[in-house]
Amino acid sequence: MNTRTLCQLCMFLVIFLDSVTDAVWTLTGSSEFAVAGKSFTLTCDPHDSNALAVKCKRLDIDTTAAGTSRATVEANGCRFDFGSDTQYQYTCVPGPVYKLTIPANVMTNSQNNKVWRCESLFGGAAAEHKVKVQVPVSSVSLQADNAVNQNVIVIYESIPNTFYCITNGCRPKANVTVTTSGVTEGPLTESTTQNGDLMITRVAQVIKAYRGGSTAKTIQCSAVNIQGRQSVASQLITFNVYYIPSVEPTLTGYTNGTVLYEGDNDLTVTCQQSGGYPLSIITWSCESQTGTTNNSQTVASSYVQLTVNRNLNRKTCTCTVRHPDNNLAYTRTLSVAFTVYYPPSTPTVQPSGTSFPWVENTRGVLRCTTTPGNPSETTYKWLQNSLVINGQTGNTFNILKLTSEHNGLPIQCRVSNVYTRDRPPAKVSNISTLDVQYKPIISLSNRMVVVAEGQDVKIICSAIGNPTPIVNWHRENLTYTFGTDTSATLALEKATRNDTGIYKCKANTRGNSGNQSQIFMSEESIKIYVFYFTINKATPVCSSSESISISCCSVINHLKPLKFHGWKHRMGNTTVRSLQGKLLTMNYNTLSIDYCGYYDSGIYTCEAAVDLHNNNTWYSFSSSIELVVTAPPVVSSNMLDTNVNKKKKNVCDLLLCTKTRHRGMD
């Protein structure tokens, strides 16, 4: 180098150093933020300092370290002094302005916060620039107070809810937008936190929601931090607005106090709750019923179907209505208590105290047993042959003194209450047939028998009793005849005067009442009178024109006066005449016939009548004898009437006497 050149160089250095000293250098980026994957240019401007050479370096790279080669790069007449890293591009424009370009492949996040420095090659003036690499926001999340990350969430009507839009880390800070629909927006607050050199944006939005409306209730966040880039969006959250019903539930189908009748149609009780969201849940406590759900879009409904019977009486059915979200604490209960009328149970009738058989002349009590119905007030009626027995009320049937007439009576008990009054018929018991033991009751076909000697006697004695009696006939102390059942016949063939007397019909049986055995016995007496006549001649004979007397004597109780006594004269089958005799004594009647003639022959019958029982009942008796008259025959066309009528002296008087001849007569 010659002297002239050296002088020029020295002059340049002086000028350069002077300019470095006086000028203010700047180092600026091509944009506020570098974008990863895109080239980024740093411009070093000495601002007319006439710097002929600069050096640019990243401060975190030590270009003076041992072993680091240095190189001078000329660009468009400008000189860059730089280390051995040639991955950067350098340009120089007249001015001079020096530019360093970080290529796209080099511009990564690793370049972030790296400080670049441009300075004079000879030292002195310099400028620095920190490269900030832009990181776009890539996500934004939407969260609720409970941090549930769901697309559909529940909020409660009119209750403030805070939702948070949170971005991931980015540079620069993202702008967050909250978009809502169908809700009321409250205060919005924003905060930024740093995660290293990245920025996280958190926006809190308060909202309230109300029921109704046709617009979907939603919220969504969006975020962007680089102008011109597409914003990112969070998930869209749809709100289900829960709220409680505004009206009280209802219970229909039955009203407390209403009377149901057993056997009525099944009862349907319905519990309903209008409004609220979601619809209320209805549960039952009702006779093991779970209920049948019958919801509509706006009404929760459930019903139970009940059989109307006595088991339902006084039972309570309760429906519980509650909102399905326990946080809303909405619960209502409705109850009904049923009143069911039903009849008493079918009664039974049994002896009370002493069981069957009962004994006559004692007291008998039947008891009617039933389970009361509802209402429990029970009316008792006692029936015989389905007819009400007057004077017997209450649940006992009382007979103060039992007789034979009570035996075999069919007794029933009928019970009733309000139910059977409104829903007849009443309940009727089984038939209880009274079993009353009593002494036999004897019936005789005749109480007194008066027969003529030689007639047959037949008297039937029958007896009824409980137990069934055996009947026998007795005379005095001897058994006269035996019976095998409830009837015995006393038969006397051709009674004689010796049969006159008192006969007894006896009936007896053996009963059991409780643990005791008892004999029942009855007897009835009958008097048999055998009436006979005695005539003093067996076959009287009278000669013509002679007189004859025929005596008739009646043998019967002498205390009984005769009503009538006379004679009848019969020839063959023809009654010739009736003759009235003269009563001479109480025992004999004498028929006197003077001047016997042929026409006096025939049969003469002595007749008598007596009232044995003083009841105007007359018994007639007769006895006959034949009179033979020895006389020549008489021939006459009308001889019977003529001769009989001419015999004026043939008048007979009848004397009837009574004699007591037999034992046993009073």
UniProtKB/TrEMBL annotation:
Q: Which residues form a coiled coil?
A: none
* Protein name from the UniProt record: Ig-like domain-containing protein
**Where's it mainly located?**
membrane
Location of the protein in the cell: Membrane
PROSITE patterns from the UniProt entry: IG_LIKE
Q: Which InterPro entries match?
A: Cell_adhesion_signaling, Ig-like_dom, Ig-like_dom_sf, Ig-like_fold, Ig_sub, Ig_sub2
Q: Which UniProt keywords apply?
A: Disulfide bond, Glycoprotein, Immunoglobulin domain, Membrane, Signal
Q: Which residues form the signal peptide?
A: 1-23
According to the entry, every stretch annotated as the Ig-like domain falls at 249-335, 347-429, 440-522
**Which species is this record about?**
Tegillarca granosa
- Lineage: superkingdom: Eukaryota
**Topological category with respect to the lipid bilayer:** Single-pass type I membrane protein
